[in-house]
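Agenda item 2: iron/sulfur cluster complex prediction
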Amino acid sequence: MTIVDLTSMVEPQGELQDKINGMLDSMSEDISNFCFQCGKCTSGCEAFILLELEPHRIMALVKNGFIDELVNSDIIWTCMTCFKCKERCPQGMAPVNVLFALKNLAVAMGKQIPSGYTNMLQNVLGTGLIQAPKEVLNRKNETIDREKLNLPPIQRPEDPAKFQQIIMKAATETLR
Amino acid sequence: MAEVLDLKLTDLEDFACCGFPVKSTDSGASLVMAARNLSIAADRGLDICSLCNACTSVLTEANRELKGNKELRDEVNEELGKIDMEYKPGVKVKHFSRILYEDIGPDAIKERVTKDLGDFSFSIHYGCHYLRPKKIYEGFDNPEDPRTVDELVELTGAKVIDYKNRLQCCGGAILGVEESIALKMAKEKLDNVTTNDVDALITICPFCSIMYEDNQRKIESNFDVEYKLPVLYYPQLLGLAFGLEARKQLGFRLNKVRPEALLKKLEGDE
Ligand code: SF4
Ligand code: SF4
Ligand code: SF4
Ligand code: SF4
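Presented output:
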């Protein structure tokens, strides 16, 4: 099974959607019970100043059921996954995990997602690595690879087909 | 470098990406990938020494979740079973820096130091996933004021220079989404680090190095600034203090920002 095949065999992943929705439901309940909108998460958020991500608002929106709006928005893709919000929340909440769930849901619903993420997934699926080892040309026009640099080869799945088989579910959804 | 400390490292065949890069798109797949890697290590009877912060956090977290949650473990094993693999608890996952600090220990490292780097000063970038989420790291170091890598650098005799906003993220996570913003974040850090006179920035994660080293020239030309700040992976620094050969044994010829000045200073010291 190659990547090309994958892009043309997409089926809506209803089961996965249900699962993530269930997760978000229980998160939303936790938010209602515990998040008091103090804003501490946002005060340290790495994506706040430059990208205007406000995790406390994400929490409020999830609590009030604006899931559809969120999965359609670009803002959820600005999280840097620095985990500061989770570490600093006085109430033990984890906005970063709510954001993971929202992003996962966007994917399961087949929404348009930033190409950087699709590329990563495509690479991982195709090679088992986020990027296949590169060969470069030096000034003398010689090809330099790891072997020439006396570096050991990079390990990767010995049987790519088997590897793909287990992470396929995700990929069929994303690469539409 | 590890050999100097009698640490034997083996490349694990069949190992794949840890799973972190796909966590945002599919946390389930990310978990299965992490579990697959853990099961490979378990079969070989080895623990995992990770060199990257993100791998450390994803593998540690997966290990923890799978050990404690039978339902989840069964689910993951159902997937892995399709390719005749099985997750079994028992493998330990630790970042190389943590192994140095906890398992080898400052005293044993200090003993091997043959070259005092007292004339050098460095700043450190820890990176987000080395210590966060805290819960998974069993209280190792303090995520709000980390010290362990400072101590490791100080073992070489070098001075550690603090700088503004030292816990700021490198921006790497959005490099593929909003490149200009990611570079701007890395620039802020390079600005802050170079306010002081340091010989290099020390990282413990190759991805952070991509942001500060591989992208340094791009940042310089985009923002019309100049840093020429070498970025070293911590083991390279420790290797120097062990008296190993910089270019041949420690990969200094592969650093993108030429560390010539630093190496000259080192030779001048001799
Ligand atoms: S820090 Fe916690 S309690 Fe405060 S707004 Fe953020 S999530 Fe809510
Ligand atoms: S993990 Fe995401 S939401 Fe939380 S503080 Fe970091 S960038 Fe902000
Ligand atoms: S370095 Fe990056 S891509 Fe490679 S295993 Fe670690 S997180 Fe995954
Ligand atoms: S600083 Fe950047 S590369 Fe380093 S651990 Fe954090 S997000 Fe990853």
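Discussion summary: Residues 14-34 of chain A form the longest helix (21 residues).
Owner for follow-up: CH.
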